[in-house]
Each structure stands twice: as C-alpha cells, then as structure tokens.
Model the fold of this input.
Amino acid sequence: DQQVKQNSPSLSVQEGRISILNCDYTNSMFDYFLWYKKYPAEGPTFLISISSIKDKNEDGRFTVFLNKSAKHLSLHIVPSQPGDSAVYFCAASKNTDKLIFGTGTRLQVFP
Amino acid sequence: NAGVMQNPRHLVRRRGQEARLRCSPMKGHSHVYWYRQLPEEGLKFMVYLQKENIIDESGMPKERFSAEFPKEGPSILRIQQVVRGDSAAYFCASSPDWPEAFFGQGTRLTVV
Done:
C-alpha cells in the first residue's frame, strides 16, 4: 500500500529553467509534508516542509505547494542549477508518527 | 554538533551470518528511525525507537530482524542469518522532535 507516490521516476531540466517535482498521497490524515534531497552514496538531506494548514511555503529557490483537496504537493525549483541534480523524495507524516516516503524522482539539470 | 553517524559504511556478509548496523544520533536527539532502501526503490520505514523503547516496529520483518536503542550507546539494527534479499542501504535518522528527521549516510549491506 503506497500511501505516498511519486509517479515520475525521472525529470530532465535545462539549467536556469523551472523544475517541478510532483507527489500524490492517499491518506487524508497526513498533516505534515517534507521534501528530501539525496545524492548517490549519501543519506537524504532535509530540504523544505509544509504543514497541512498552509498551501505554500517558500525558501529561496525552493517552493512547496500543497493542494489538500487533490491530495497533491509539488516542489518548484527556480532557477534550476546543475548542483540540484539528485534524487528528490517527498515524505508525509501524521500526528507525530513516522515519515512515509515516496519512491523518489531523479532530477537531472543540464547546462 | 556532529551529524547522525552510521557505521560501518559498507558491510559484506555471507549468507547465514549476522549483520550489526550501528547508529549514533545527533546530540540531544532522543528519537531514532531506521529505514531501508532496496535498489531502485524508495525509503521503507522499518522501526522507530526512543531510548530503551520500541515505539513502532510495524515495518520490521517478523523474523531475523531486531533493533534496540539502549540508555547508553548507539542504536543497533541486527539482522540474523542474512539472505541475499537483505542486501540494501540501511539509513538511520534521528530527531529531537516530530516531524523533521536528520539522516546518516547509511550502511550498504551486501550479502554474498
């Protein structure tokens, strides 16, 4: 039962353009959402998060949007940089419970 | 403040041997989580521990796997009688409080 889904396994974007990574979830009880970034042979690093009481959170080049009615969130990276090339995981949690992760999207930013 | 420390980084075991993976959480963090990542898959929750307590082990296989987080020392994930299917990257994360978790660099277990 995959409660958090990232349906695009990979995404390729030109440097300077916008990267949009998508995530869908099935459990309406989730009340906190996070994005993690992972380089090969390293652990995931926290990127940005959003509470279910908000629909947008912004931090520099990174913005997360939450659409609760659609059970959908997205991560926007503007402008994309080659150093952003990594695997991005979305994660969700409810009521102090553990994080449930999606399967990840591999982003490649090319010059 | 050092990050989450996992050791060893790489571990090779023959089928039937035991694997012990260690995780030292960040200073002041009392919550530890273990996740497993199989090739080409996402991070799968295994177990959530606090000091001397297992809070949630719903992701742990029923046999051969165990975890502890003693009052003193690191958290240990123990896999007995390893099989090829146990080959994966095992990540530990620690947290001072819900929901943000900080991950270690992982232990890559290879069963030959």
In short: Chain A has a mean pLDDT of 95. The radius of gyration of chain A is 13 Å. Chain A touches chain B at residues 6, 32, 34, 36, 41-46, 49, 89, 91, 93, 96-104 (CB under 8 Å). DSSP finds no helices and eleven strands in chain A.
